[in-house]
Design goal:
Strand order of the largest sheet: 3-7-8-14-11-10-9-22-23-21-20
Radius of gyration: 25 Å
Shape: globular
Helix content: 25-40%
Number of strands: 23
Strand content: 25-35%
Structural class: alpha+beta
Distance between the termini: 37 Å
RNA sequence: CGGGGUGUGGCUCAGUUUGGUAGAGCGCCACGUUCGGGACGUGGAGGUCGUGGGUUCAAAUCCCGUCACCCCGACCA
């Protein structure tokens, strides 16, 4: 039935007209955020925060499942501590915020507001790790961090953002590498299964890796407009941090050794990824697993005898079945409510009016395709659950198709330029020799930077797309958020 | 951080060129009629014109600073 994509919500700028404005409109109109008087610091409103809480709940469960414990580090880092690992401080110094006063007294040592907490974890590990028996430590924390960004955008790049940062420390390099890979997989599974966002797993190039890391892995997603978004990272540190911070333990062979570390993180940027992967011209489209409201009941002609009573019965039934359900019995017209909950991305809408009650049925409409189904009231719970799964699968497929359509395999620089011009922004797959000079040149000439070296390699050609020398790896390139 | 643009009731904007003391539509509140895709009528409330200085008898309007947002670059989860 009504499968047209007619725009029903004119409060939101059309995507094709102005993608950036469309994105901002959704953030505001779906009541995810509100700006504050500090640049880059936003209020995450209840509806937006509820999405984050669902993300947290699921991810946290996955971390616990893989043996991690939550801890909480302080938010301040003394300058001397930050300085200990050279690459790390060089990477982060340009964007840290400093506390220089305590009350009216100038601080002897100024304090950095954590941009990330490697240094704090390292200091802590140096105190508590003495023997191989103390290893591994598999820690995670849910906190906010501050990075003084120049250009800011809600969720995508704010100066303060919420995230989780996992920090683990291991007896052997092998174990730490396995941990790095394990968490990358956890992230990818989470994105695909729960957020319905297809991702590319890969390794960052040398120039793009985390400050202080030996290697950085990431999952990259492609947004509706063809730009890439890094959705999560997992780093292998080797023993570099341990050496810099003097973390040592006595091994099984009774030798003093340096342990190996990892860190991995995901942020509220995921909410931005959800918006830009699934959203449409009528607003947000939320993956059912993290939607604050999974199903909204809209009574039609609610003033008529019995309608609200019946609607409330549906509400009780769905709630008892563990579905996050809301009933909107406000005085707004049904049409207004349809538009409102579409804008807010509620996956499933249930309409119930006198006609339905008479025939013991109701109408279920799925958000992503506006498909209407008539369902017997007795079968409602299973029907809603089925529809929620359909929404998850439907939006995943749509996102995957968008990515496939916008992924171009290229063997020459000209092909890259041409593909971008003719088909629009997207992922470029092209071979690379491994030289940073070529990476820079590709960016300079075509405008796309390296996103990652995918774990799943293809041999598109034997030579580098840029210099023609023998190619080492196939790389995904793209314009990034 | 560089180049460009925009800030006027909650929202979208007019008014700024040529200074004279603030308007519209939507939203909000009340009542009534409505109700299967953003209903209608009547009445009402709501603005130190982003903000700080300056010029002037008088500033939304002119000048200087500053802040926020948007677009394009460079940096980044």
């Amino acid at each position: 039935m009504a499968k047209d994509n007619k725009k029903m919500v004119d409060a939101i700028t059309s995507m094709d007209e102005d993608f950036a404005q469309w994105y901002t409109d959704i953030c505001k109109k779906a009541e995810l955020i509100e700006y504050t008087s500090v640049k880059g610091c936003m209020v995450i409103r209840p509806y937006g925060y509820a999405i984050w809480e669902n993300i947290q709940r699921i991810l946290d469960g996955m971390f616990k499942e893989t043996g991690h414990e939550n801890v909480c580090m302080p938010m301040f880092i003394p300058e001397s501590l930050l300085q200990k690992e050279k690459d790390h401080v060089e990477g982060f110094a340009p964007e840290v915020a400093w506390v220089t006063m305590g009350g009216s007294e100038k601080l002897e040592d100024r304090l950095c507001v954590r941009p990330t907490s490697e240094t704090l974890f390292c200091e802590h590990y140096s105190n508590i790790v003495h023997s191989y028996r103390d290893l591994p430590k598999l820690y995670n924390q849910w906190v906010s961090v501050v990075r003084w960004e120049k250009t800011t955008r809600p969720f995508l790049r704010s100066r303060e953002f919420l995230w989780q940062e996992g920090h683990t420390i291991h007896e052997t390099a092998q174990e730490a590498i396995e941990e790095t890979e394990r968490m990358l997989n956890v992230y990818a599974d989470f994105c695909e299964k729960y957020l319905a966002i297809p991702v590319i797993k890969g390794q960052k190039t040398e120039s793009d890796k985390f400050a202080g890391a030996e290697s950085t892995y990431a999952i990259e997603a492609l947004m509706h407009d063809g730009k890439a978004l890094q959705a999560g990272t997992s780093h292998y540190f080797g023993d570099g941090f341990a050496r810099a911070f003097g973390i040592q333990f006595t091994s099984r062979e009774n030798k003093l050794e340096y342990p190996y570390q990892t860190s991995w993180g995901m942020t509220t940027r995921l909410i931005g990824a959800i918006i830009m992967t699934h959203g449409d011209n009528n607003g947000l489209v939320l993956p059912p697993a993290v939607a604050p409201i999974q199903a909204v009941i809209i009574p039609v002609q609610q003033h008529k005898e019995g309608v609200l009573d019946e609607a409330r019965k549906l509400y009780d039934t769905l709630k008892a079945a563990g579905i996050r359900v809301k009933i909107d019995d406000s005085e707004n017209s049904p049409g207004w409510k349809f538009a409102e909950y579409e804008m807010k991305g509620v996956p499933v809408r249930i309409e119930l009016g006198p006609k339905d009650i008479e025939s013991k049925q109701c109408v279920i409409v799925t958000r992503h395709n506006r498909e209407k189904t008539f369902v017997a009231i007795d079968d409602l719970v299973s029907a809603v659950n089925t529809k929620l799964e359909e929404v998850r699968d439907g939006i995943y497929q749509a996102a995957l198709e968008n990515r496939e359509r916008r992924t171009y395999a290229c063997t020459t620089m000209d092909e890259i330029t041409k593909a971008l011009e003719e088909k629009g922004d997207g992922f470029i797959k092209a071979m690379w020799c491994g030289e940073e000079a070529c990476e820079d040149k590709v960016k300079e000439v075509t405008g796309v930077g390296s996103r990652c070296i995918p774990l799943e390699q293809e041999q598109l050609s034997d030579v580098c797309v840029c210099c023609g020398k023998p190619a080492k790896k196939m790389v995904y390139w793209g314009k990034a958020y």
